[in-house]
Amino acid sequence: MNVLVIGSINTDFVVESNILPELGETVFGQDFAMLSGGKGANQAVAASRLGASVAMIAAVGDDEMGRRETKLLKQENIDTTGIHIKIGVPTGVAVVNVSQGDNCIIVVSGANAALTVDDIRNQQDKILAADVILCSLEIPLECVVYACRQAYKYGKHFILNPAPAQDLPDELLATPTILTPNLIEYAQIFGLPENSQAADVVHHFKQYSQENMAITCGRHGVLYHQHGYAQRQSGFKVNTVDSTGAGDTFNGALAAFFDMPRREAVRHATAAAALSVTRKGARNGMPFIEELKRFIQEYQ
User: Shortest CA distance to 18 belongs to which of 8, 28, 9?
Assistant: First the structure.
């Protein structure tokens, strides 16, 4: 599959601690690492490692972090000629707090927020060459809407990972081939009460019969629609070390396997996400294709 990712590039500063601090609280951490991140870049790496031919349209600052991230993406066999260098703004950063397999994240968008529709329009050859275009919401919304329209215009599959959660125009609810929110993002998209539980989300999802929806539910797997019916792909039981990047792995894998029947594509993407949480770091756990094949075979 030829996958075009239009999205964010960050450098992640990861701190590990026994507990996540409460507001105003200081806690001691046990480990620190500077890692590569950004939902777009992570999804591009996941797709590339699983055999897709991947290109990226994104923005970085004219700084050491931007040069570092671009170099690392090239090393993952990703076409980086669509990465624009923005003068006067820093490369995006994320501060990730990890504790006992859970995490909380603060993102400073930097150059990601400076990506423009013209930046995408000037990479028309990449749009035309793509089988699948994959976007998330760490870039300006007008860029996502434009990418969606281009995908529809040229008959390309369009995957929208609506994260971080925000209100979406109707066009981005109806046009994409598939949307991939988690439970919290799904509740916000459809205006469910803030105190909605997982069961409330599942009940709403079963009444919502559109084909363009797949909800990631962590270790519980994925809910999706097919042929007018709600389906469930069960989660794969693994030893969770760090859940950072699991959603990005799922989305990148879904794009890589999008030429499979929906059921098989979701199964492979769920398995890839499960493998990704068994090692520290958003990218460190992202599997390569042979590793994923062995995992699925052994799990049967």
Answer: 28
